[in-house]
Amino acid sequence: MANQTAADVLVDTLIDWNVEVIFGIPGDGINGIIEALRTRQEKVRFIQVRHEEAAAFAACAYAKWTGRLGVCLATSGPGGIHLLNGLYDAKLDHQPVLAITGLQFHDLLHTFTQQDVELDKLYIDVAVYNTRVMGPNHVENAVELACRTALAYRGVAHVTIPVDVQSQPVEAKRRSERNIPHHVSDVMAVSAQLPSNAQLARAAALLNAGKRTAILAGQGAIGAADQLAALAERLGAPVIKALLGKASLGDDSPYSTGGIGLLGTKPSQEALETCDTLLIVGSCFPYIEYYPKPGQARAVQTDLDPQRIGLRYPVEAGLVGDSAKVLDLLLPHLTYRDDRSFLEAAQAGVKEWRELLEERGTRDDKPMKPQVVAHELNKLLRDDTIIATDSGTITTWAARHLDIRGDMKFSCSGNLATMACSLPYAIAAAIAFPERQVVCFIGDGGLTMLLGELATCVKYRLNIKIVVIKNNSLGQIKWEQMVFLGNPEYVCDLQPIDFVTVARGFGIEGYMIDDPKKCRETLQKALAATGPALIEAVVDPHEPPMPPKVTIRQAAHLAESLARGTPARRKIALTIASDTVREIV
């Protein structure tokens, strides 16, 4: 193309890499790139968000939902700085994201000019590839490699380009003699690394020797549900799911015991406490204290990244490769385990646990319990629903009460565990899969952080249903202060917001629930609405997200925090006592 600018080359290169969506906000530091996008809007869709943090979250989620490269764009200085939290979400959850930022004029950098932030230096920690474009003829090489690196290493790539360079024409006379035109390729080679027969035999011998095998499935096991079920059947093994692996196996599977950790289930925790063999499939679940004690169980781990083998638990066999392919190779080496007692004990535990969830999800107390909202919502979700949830007590209710079935997808900010991700995640889902039901299950604290993205939902007429659990509190922090430290709750109460009125101000239909008897009916009405809708569920702020098994130390800390003057301590004590009695009964 004649008279191509550096920005033209940048956008054309993204098109060559099959990029169809870019999330961001325009700004004077990226005007050249925005113009290149304007002239190619039939090929690349630019989604304008209201905060750059949301753009990075959406790019991360787009990668999670689709398996493709997520892309976000921000201007120089503050715009690029705002991306960082969402980019760290991508880094810690190992998602391929390309961040493109502007810089100020190339010959004014580092001279205290306006918005003089050297973003390539700022991004050193977050990015697996990070470069500053040095001129128009540098763009193709740099952007090609950025896309390739993000996908190959499943991380953040960053390209920053001075604003004046963006509009400069690509001219042969400016090209260095060694920079031969078009010497790079947009072909992505997918790793074919698989374990050897000897490695498979070693892993199989270890698993076959066990009597009580547990399987821990993580994000890397998504897409391997058939293999997980076949392995679980062969070994008589329960499948425990890390939060990011919630969609790796349906919660209706006879082998699934649900989640692990603070927001996990009792049968999952008991399976890990009593197993003698552990198979970790595509998981880097970070809470080491929930694994079997070192030496208790012999372990095998599969992962796409050899760096993560043995990272959380000492393993005796490591199988590197795609989870589904590795398990397909491993399965013929495994013998059928006649003794089903370990699996049957876990299944009995699941039955009891589900009875407890049913009891808690059908209570008619007022104030309404948050479990009631999740329980009723679960019954109304389609088998193709994409669920985005946030960080906080909201994560517990989602993890325990929203069941994965059919072709459902589920995600959140896993290792970063940042608030505010849920709505941008849902936006990305609705952009990528406009025909599917998309639910944003979020707390009032998380929603208010990026409340402006309600406008994005309206602008693009996104079919997102936002269920906001309103307890007027930073609930997770409140309970951590009390249960883990024994401190009275402090500065966790939130100023109440009328979210229905706020939603209508954005042009979104709003619904309010505070009566458990009307919960299902209201949710049904909201889910049937066309386009975005918001449901404000007013719940009991004193309902604790109790761990699956409360330790003596946690109980002592909670008692100490109440004795030392936690506000509303009598209501909290009564709520916990009521929950405990119900568990015993």
TrEMBL record:
It comes from the Bacteria. Residues 5-115 form the Thiamine pyrophosphate enzyme N-terminal TPP-binding domain. Residues 200-329 form the Thiamine pyrophosphate enzyme central domain. Residues 390-536 form the Thiamine pyrophosphate enzyme TPP-binding domain. Keywords: Thiamine pyrophosphate. Belongs to the TPP enzyme family. This is Thiamine pyrophosphate-binding protein. It comes from Dongia soli.
